[in-house]
Design goal:
Two copies of one chain form a homodimer. Chain A has helices at residues 10-28, 33-40, 44-56, 117-142, 178-185, 198-209, 269-272, 274-281, 295-308, 311-335, 345-348, 350-364, 384-399; strands spanning 31-32, 60-65, 76-80, 84-91, 95-102, 107-114, 146-154, 157-159, 164-168, 173-176, 193-197, 218-223, 227-233, 236-237, 339-344, 374-377. By secondary structure, chain A is of the alpha/beta class. At the A-B interface, helix 1 and helix 10 of A face helix 1 and helix 10 of B. Chain A binds a DNA duplex through helix 1 and helix 3.
Chain lengths: 418, 418
DNA sequence: AGTGTTCGTCGGATGGGACAACAAACTAGG
DNA sequence: CCTAGTTTGTTGTCCCATCCGACGAACACT
């Protein structure tokens, strides 16, 4: 991720190596300086110097001494200090959520606030979100944590550069300067706020800490009210020129008889979105179609019926699964990912979808053996987008550790000695 | 493109800055050392040192002195030396071709050898290709050029790492170790040979030197026997995990009545490939459907009929154009490119396609104003893949200028003085 | 207790870039 | 013609980051 068109001086070099040591600790766990040197190819003396600087920044600290590690002097392990954190926030149709992750990837705090976002409108929803973020930040500060960055996920088309939401049909928002609006609502000096599509953030989360952690080529497909997607290719998120990439919901491969929420006929979303599933498995007066009932509960009921072998339910799921496989096949042909991760309700009903879906998939993928692609169900659940957001904030630290500089004050001395 | 997981020492730093100076000269033309310093942000003294090293490598040389450039001492311009070259080769259905491009991007040599590749088979075709490559290399050497690298484009699924072709249905090849086979056939020590899908190379060529040169987000779609595609996102080529990415021809969005060459029904290729066009605009006994006639000639005839306003022809082209727009809309929704480049016969008949295609496109793209995407017809014609191959070979030099080291002997002295 | 091994640090060497000063080469103007 | 002013490119010096060799420290094993 090093900028190829910037001049490289010693500062650049130092930053690169600082980042490399920090990432080594993240990816392979606590270890001695000698071991880091062996891992990275850097000189032992250099590693000592780098670790000292990272320690001064509050990013790493000395851990245990390696006892019983065979012959020779035991190593003094270095580990990532969990003080610095990233904050991920999410606005969805019926809730806002905030999640704080420390540099070690551990969850510090997670708060989900149910809200009727479309009814509440932009202003009040952002007020609520700002309160939730400020509360999480205060809470983190009280336990000695620092927030190094904030990323907000929104279910719509986002231009990341200025942090502007262009259009989010599911919550009815249009042209909202999310980043600026939040900065204005948050007290005190605020670190940079990034804004990103929620499915993109979920894809990043799956790639970084899901069941397939570390996968550099991954496509995330989530089924909720709409159908969203995020693509990670060769380790980087695909955004497109203006950040409009990954709009997979409106591929014209669905049944032309069904009208999509976007107004067009034959969108994929109209064949595999939540509405399509409910249409297939239930009648109008069936309680599972009642939007006032919690989605989790309704899905549990459908899962129950499927498990009992109910014909209508199974046929409906199979139909949706086949349509799902058709679209996923396109994604596999285009991106040749290592793994496809299914999220949202696809994950919840995954076991019943998979047979029909994989049958269709195998029919449509050109590459032999699906191009080495496997299908997986998301295990991150509703926290995926938030986790991805926190991850993005942390990634900035892993790319340029020195960026956390000054802001980080040493933990308040409990005793009070000068 | 700098490896983020390798230790950075001074050598790394030097390489980075050497590359930056060389790219500055490529992108902005000959200029003085002082100007390079201003462009890159490097110090004047550093630039002098870097230029001296590049000159010693034979990559740049002193050019004219800037006369009449206003007040002050005129600058001694530095320009890219065209001695070092990249070689691109292409295997297609009815020809093999070789193109040599010098470091300034100028064409040194282009040879196209008509061959009936499917009938000739793997061995003999590779023999012919090796002869063509060796001849081009000898020819280049005779005029004082050095080949720094070779890239071969193949119309099929390629695994780039070992340089192996997995499957190329249009020429009937399967599991061919292209790189190794060529090395064995070429005399003398051979620089690394890369192998890549031909549409991917064309996409790179369009992005690097087509009408939209410099575009970092670009999708190339070519219509020939099959329909191929190459995607460049954020400046890098999408390959996928195993290099199977970009298979756009078999998206299931075509008329289910038509069978594709792959055996499936409803592939996009079956609706917009060359066979589909001919089916729409001509009867079985029409000369334009005669495969023994050169494709260029047949396309010219179709273009003539369209220009005269022939109803059958225009309706046929419109039908294909609409189908083309449908598929392209998917690509725009997924990749949000800055430009879509149409190649192959799409480019040849472009003016007649565009209206129907753009109408369908606008109907199907979700992002406002097509997400800022424009449609363009390729101007590189049949040389696109070769150009892309040569470009890839040159790109290695622009990434690590020092890599051309030792091999480059100073041009033979014509006089013969010791 | 002695030996061998590994860890972490110290001092010096190497090398690359930044900075300031300077000579060179040109224009403009008297 | 000559001088002042400007820009270029080189030189010498300094700074800084990494590398290398050596050394003390800490441990296991005999």
């Amino acid at each position: 991720m090093t900028d190829t068109s910037a001049p490289a001086d010693q500062v650049f070099l130092r930053r690169h190596n600082l980042a490399m040591v920090l990432r080594d600790l993240r990816d392979h766990g606590p270890r001695s300086r000698a071991r880091i040197a062996a891992d990275t190819g850097l000189n032992k003396a250099t590693v000592s110097s780098l670790v000292a600087e990272l320690a001064e920044l509050g990013l790493v600290r000395d851990g245990d001494v390696e006892r019983g590690g065979g012959v020779g002097r035991p190593g003094q392990t270095v580990e990532i200090d969990g003080r610095v954190c990233g904050l991920g926030a999410e606005v969805n149709v019926d809730y806002v959520a905030v999640l704080v992750l420390d540099l070690r990837g551990e969850e510090v705090r997670y708060v989900r606030t149910p809200l009727d976002v479309p009814r509440l409108g932009v202003e009040k929803t952002l007020d609520e979100l700002a309160v939730a973020i400020a509360a999480a930040a205060d809470d983190a500060a009280a336990t000695g944590h620092d927030i190094a960055g904030i990323t907000v996920g929104i279910p719509g088309m986002v231009e990341t550069a200025p942090g502007v939401l262009r259009h989010a049909p599911n919550i009815g928002w249009r042209e909202v300067r999310i980043a600026d609006e939040l900065v204005a609502r948050l007290p005190g000096p605020v670190t940079a706020i990034r804004v990103e599509n929620d499915a993109n953030l979920s894809a990043l989360a799956e790639s970084a800490m899901g069941a397939s952690a570390g996968t550099a080529d991954l496509v995330y497909v989530t089924g909720e009210t709409g159908v969203g997607g995020g693509v990670i290719s060769d380790g980087v998120l695909l955004r497109g020129t203006e950040g409009y990439g990954g709009e997979i919901g409106h591929m014209p491969i669905g049944d032309p008889a069904h009208r999509c929420g976007c107004g067009k006929l034959g969108c994929w979303e109209a064949s595999v979105g939540l509405a399509a599933l409910l249409r297939e498995v239930a009648d109008k007066d069936d309680p599972v179609t009642d939007p006032s009932v919690d989605l989790e509960v309704r899905l549990a009921e459908i899962r129950r019926r499927a498990a009992l072998g109910d014909g209508r339910t199974l046929r409906g799921i199979e139909a949706v699964g086949t349509a799902l496989g058709l679209g996923v096949a396109i994604l596999v042909n285009l991106f040749n990912p290592r793994v496809i991760v299914l999220g949202g309700y696809f994950a919840a009903l995954g076991e019943f979808f998979l047979p029909a879906m994989e049958t269709e998939l195998d029919k449509r993928v050109v590459a032999p053996a699906r191009g080495g692609c496997r299908i997986e169900l998301s295990a991150l659940g509703f926290t995926a987008a938030c986790r991805g957001g926190a991850h993005v904030a942390l990634e900035a630290v892993f790319t340029d550790p020195a960026s956390v500089a000054v802001a980080t004050v040493p933990t308040p001395l409990p005793g009070g000695m000068a």
